[in-house]
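Work package 3, deliverable 3.1, input record:
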Amino acid sequence: MTNRLKSTRSITRKVDRVKNLAFIIAMVLLVTTLLLDIFVIEMIFDLLTYLYIALGLLFVRYGIPLLYASRRLIQYYWQRAIKNKLAVGGLVFILLLILLAFIGPLFTVDPTAVNFDEKNLPPLGFTIEESVYKIETKQFITSRITGTSEHPLGTDDKGRDLLAMIVSGTRVSLQVGLFATGIAIILGTLIGVSAAYLGGKTDNILMRFTDIMMTFPFFLLLVFIVFIFGPNLALIVIVIGLTGWTGTARLIRSESLSLRTREFVMASKALGASDRRIILSHLIPNVISLIIVIATLSIPGVILAEAALSFIGLGDPSVASWGMILKAGQQNLDTTWWVAVAPGIMLFLTVLAFNFLGDGLRDAFDPRSNI
Amino acid sequence: MKKTWLRDYIIKRLLYAIFIAWAVLTVTFVMVRVGPTSPADKYLSNLAAQGQDTSQVMAAIEARYGVDRPIYEQYLNYITNLGRGDWGWSLSTSMSVMELIKAHWIYSFQLIFLSSIFAAIIGILIGIYSAVRQYSKTDYIATFFSFIGISIPNFWLGVMLILLFSVNLGLFKTYYDTSLSLLSLANLKQLILPVITLGTGMLAGYTRYTRSAMLENLRKDFVKTARAKGLPERTVIGKHVFRNAVLPLVTIIMFDLGSIVFGGAYLTEIIFGIPGLGQISFNAIFADDYAVVVAVTVISAFLILMINLITDITYTYLDPRIRYD
């Protein structure tokens, strides 16, 4: 009996060691390519790609095992959550949006293709009157323009297809929302759990630091940093991630404080488990439902922050985000109103979907909580 | 006993606020220094592009910022200048930043003030009503609309309001008229759309907070006691439930003022062309006018800090059960 236990334990340990080794090798490889890329060769991938790969690796190494370990709990909550129709609606919308971001660009025309012959086309089903000044006859000619099925959402003042722009904007918004939240959640969870578990001075220092970070006005700080260092999507994602963890850290800390003194943690400690092991395999799995809820509810804020940043002209000029399209639409509101309407509706629906889903999940996890 | 405890608390909070103010100053200073271009470079290249003589401006900037002096001296200079109320020179508008801010802060203030009042009054009233009539049709409608209000991006709402009421219906002017006196009715009229833009999100938030705070208190035993005593329902709701629910609400409103409203107000100003702090910092961003951007960021951060400080102190004074420690 003891022998078998021992052998399974040594196998798990071996598997763990292999996983750790593979993870470290992958990370080292990634960093080396990044350094090579920056200092030796011209950039092959941009910074964001590296960030995504790193986050993806982290997720495969830690996220998936964590989710797998608490699969029963998640299944149970899932069954409660799907009773909430609005939450399911939100989830379906988000999944469709992700699908759109991945395969949408394959079906739409090039969002950057400028065509002045087809500028200011209204959306399908709308007709506008446009006065054009003809130089030859020296008079205004009023013509009626109807939307075509080639450009179902119309075109902007440079003749770019709005649908294609919206689809490529989906990619930007989701990228920013998911990855900045990813960074913030990882940081917040680690800081919150360590503060609660280690307690004492560490707790004090970490929480005071969180307080200080919280006092910084988040949006102003974002505007300031982007103004100083120049608009770049990678920078925006990183800054939002590095500044947005404070709320998460507080919530996770208060949740883990009560876990710390529970019997299973004591037992694990008595058996000689390391701090790292207790944090990773006892504390975090028990706050995972909270983490999922916080992540879902903080994505809309991040998406809106990026859109607002683009709207005031500090967005990455190399990508057409929803905020950027909205900005362009606002400047030509009296001629091409649809350019301002469409990205706003997408933003609104996306935020609404995440809020519905987050609310539904929270109610399923803990109906009395007030996050 | 209580008095000394409160005094200690206030002193502690004040010291803390001063520390954070210093941190804000240091962070902004370091960032401007670490940033890829120096303030002067960017501005000078703009001037040179316009074909202007840059040598005089260069000399003025060097004298002002002391770019050639050691970094710690620049840092000390920065802090002492700000402390003396000398916030630098705005290169794009050719006036001192302090004057610029003095001339424009009132526009931001009126917008924030009116929006907060509007959102707080209506939000709290709707919240109370839907808590008292929980699960009624009105409650469902209020909950649904507060969800929409929270999710709607306020800058988009502003653009849509302009599109509908100014461009299509022609009810309001598309641009803010600064020649009107601030206290005139015409000025109030042109602030209607901006106030709705900035206020909607807040209003929705307050409705939700009030509703849940009221519901929580409605379940309490003292409400049952009050009803059992035969008090009229109006007194029970108004005195027993609302008074208990309103205190946390005040904190939320004040904290909102600090964190969300500033960003939102600046965006609203940019959309409606209101010449407040947001607008001038927006213009400064495009003109690469560092002094103004730094000043607006730092001043806003200080204001937020002050608001939070005042909130904390009032809150602890009003409800001594809560001792932040």
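Chain B touches chain A at residues 20, 23-24, 27-28, 31-32, 34-36, 147-148, 150-153, 155-156, 159-160, 162-163, 167, 212, 258-259, 262-263, 266-267, 270-271, 281-282, 285-286, 293-294, 297, 300-301, 304-305, 308 (CB under 8 Å).
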